[in-house]
Amino acid sequence: MENKQTNAWKGEFGQNYNARNPQTIADMDALYIGKYGVSRTSLNYEFLNEFPRHMTFLEVGCNKGTQMLFIREMGFVVQGVELQEDLIAFAHAKGLQVAVADVAKLPFADKSFDVVYTSGLLIHIHPDNLGQAMDEIIRVAKSYVWGVEYFCKEHMEIPYHGEKCLCWKGDFAKMYEARGLELVKQRKLNYLIDDNQDAMFLLRKAQENGNPMRKLGEIESGEL
Known about the structure:
This protein is of the alpha/beta class. It has one domain: Rossmann fold, CATH 3.40.50. Helices cover 32% and strands 25% of the residues. It contains eight helices and ten strands. Helix 5 links the parallel strand 1 and strand 2.
């Protein structure tokens, strides 16, 4: 799906983002601690530690694969897809399985992965295309959808590195709920330097014959 957003990420704008994006677990943890006061490693364990380690994960929009390293380190099986073809070699050099694909048309069968997740991807999808992207994520997820995105009660455009029409914040968990998913847990992440918030969320798909997995809903939603 070619549009202003995909063209920007494939061009110089995307290359500039790639250059400043953390490439190691240590760098990503440091970024999260500086931004929220909590590490990405800590958040991952808070949301995922109860999952059996044989579960499979797919990251949509994995960039160079840094977030995938966290999932692999926890003992899960993880794959990724990325729009920017130039980044695939970086992920492969880390021993990660990544393919070129657009969220609008994921190259997998229905329910291919136990968990499908995004980290700052949905915020860059135009509202006209967001529903299609979320439907594709839901389609290839067997049980859970997980993510961390900019949060706002109202879906609204915000400037992004001096550019317009490239970034939006909103209540993405609520949008997933409107598409039939059940919210298991959400944690609001307050910025340390201003009043902005992000949110990490985990949602469960409805199962035709009841969900065979133990519910994680006993973990109450929390806020920093």
